[in-house]
Amino acid sequence: MRPNIPLMLCLGGAMALAACQKSGDAEVERAMKSVNVIDESNLNDIMLTVADPNEAVAYFKRTAAENPGRLDLQRGLAKSLIRAKRPTEAVSVWGRVSATPEATDADRVAYADALIRAGDWQRAEATLDTVPPTFETYERYRLEAMIADSNKEWTKADSFYETAVGLTTKPSGVLNNWGFSKLSRGDYAEAERLFGEALTYDDDLFTAKNNMVLARGAQRRYDLPVVPMSQVEQAELMHTMALSAIKQGDVEIGKGLLREAIDTHPQHFEAAVRALRALEGNVVN
C-alpha cells in the first residue's frame, strides 16, 4: 500500500507546528519569569527605601511566607523591621539568616547591628568576633567602635572610628558618635571639633548641633556656634545652652539664655517657659 504522502506531510507539519508552539510558549514563560524577577527586585528595593516601614514589613512577611527558601526575602524582612524600629523582631530574623550555610559576613554584621539596637551588646560583640578581620566595611568598623566605646576601650574606639570615617562618603553619623564619645570622656574641645566636622557633611543633622552646644557649654562658652540653623533650631539650641550653663552653676546666664530662647521661638516654647519659671521660683502647681 502506498503511503499517503500528503497526509504524512500534513501530520508532520502539524507536529512541527505544535512543537514550535510549545517551544514558543516555553520561551514566553521564561521571558515572563525574567520580567517578574525584575519587577519583584524593583519592588523589593522600593519597599526597603521609600515605602512606609510597616507596610514593607507586611510585604516581606507575606512574600517570605510564600517563598520560605528565599534568603533574600528574609534579609528584606530583617532590614524592614530595623526601618520600622522593631529591632527585637529583626534580631530573630537576622539570627535565622546568620545560622544558614549561605549566610555571609555582611549578614553577621547586620545581625550584630540589630543586637546593638535591641540593647544586647554582649551578643553583638560575640557575633562581630565571628567575622574575619579581612572583612573591612564601614558598617563593621562603625559597630566595632560603638562596642569599644561601651567597654571604655578608648584607644580601640578611636582607631575604629577613624577607620570607619575613611570607608564612607557620608561620615556625618559616625563623626557625631565619635564626638559624643569624646564628650562622655570629658574631651570637650575635641568633641566640639568632631561635631563641627560632622556638620560639614550634613548641616541638617540637629543631633550634632545640639551635641556641639553641649560641648561648648561644658567649656563655659555660652555663645551659639556659627552653623546653619532655623529659627526653631536656634531657640532649641539656646534652651540646651541654658541648661548647660545652669548645670555649670552659671544660673543667671542660664536665665538670660532661656529668655532669649522664649523670645526667639516662633511659637510658645513650653519647655523653656517651665525651666525659667522653676528658676524664678514661680512654678504653678
From TrEMBL:
UniProt key word RNA-binding: no
PROSITE patterns in the cross-refs: PROKAR_LIPOPROTEIN
Keyword Signal: yes
Pfam family, one: TPR_19
Organism superkingdom: Bacteria
Keywords, ordered alphabetically: Signal
Record's signal peptide: 1-18
Protein name as it appears in the record: Tetratricopeptide repeat protein
Record organism: Mesobaculum littorinae
Upper classification of the organism: Bacteria, Pseudomonadati, Pseudomonadota, Alphaproteobacteria, Rhodobacterales
